[in-house]
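Lab channel / #folding
Pinned by the channel admin:
"Please post every new chain as: sequence first, then the structure tokens as a reply. Keep commentary short and put observations after the output so the thread stays searchable."

First post following the new format, from NK:
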Amino acid sequence: MSARHRRRAAGIVAVGLALILAACGDDGPDPTPTAAGPSPAPSLAPSATVDPVLPSGDGAGGAFVGASDPTHAGLAAEGQPDQDLPTITPQPTQALLPMTISASDGLVIQATYYSAPVRPAPGVLLVPMEGTGREVYAALAERLQAAGYAVLAVDLRGYGDTGGAPDWTLAQADTRDALDMMADLPGVNRGQLAVVGASTGANIALNTCADFAGCNAAVLLSPGLDYRGITTAGAMARMGQRAVLIVASENDDNNPADSVALDGMATGDHRLEIYPNAGHGTDILAAQPDLPDRIAQWLLARLPPPGP
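Reply from TO:
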């Protein structure tokens, strides 16, 4: 067994009991996942670049930023009081599980796994931006889980609950290991994977997806052409016909120029959304409360989860 597989096995054993409990909710054994190579995304025409305009107003009867516009009874036993017997309800399958991943240098990467309601399901890996932890993705992770996806949110080394010091070369290897481990989980379809990343995490996410068999879509929040020495032009070329969604903001110092350039390099199903005043990276999720739903809808059209 290679060192890499020993590391990944250690990570999986650490959460084996929790995953066995989660798997109890399955209707039957999961099909054997396959890893024959990148699964082609559905054949769709490239999406048009859009430039949404935020609503304006003070919220008093008008539109405002963040507003949504949605077009057992039994007889008492002898000697017992005459009252209804309590209903015993089984505990639901645990839907959110803490998880750890053993990195190449022995560092323990902290993560949270959101199990899908119907399994095996497509898997989505969430990579945060520099200086933040996985909690910034809570709303998006819950929305994707509700839509039918298995989700793994990680803390990069040096940030969140993961110890150590930031190291962007090792962080890329950590992310590949995290995606590989998630793909091996019994509730995940290894041939239907996506990665979401923000800022430096977006650059890591794109490179990870481009080089990983079974990763068919990438969602990038404020990606750059070069963050911390992690470049994206080559990764975009390696994505080929796989789907890419880029989200940026006009008031971002590094964007939207880099995002526009990257969108222009995409050759498959791609979409660019630029907001006028939404900030950088995962800040856009806070500035645009409907964005998690928009991301979920975009993924549903390309990696549909199994039905109930």
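NK: The first strand starts at residue 96 and ends at 102.
TO: also worth noting, The radius of gyration is 21 Å.
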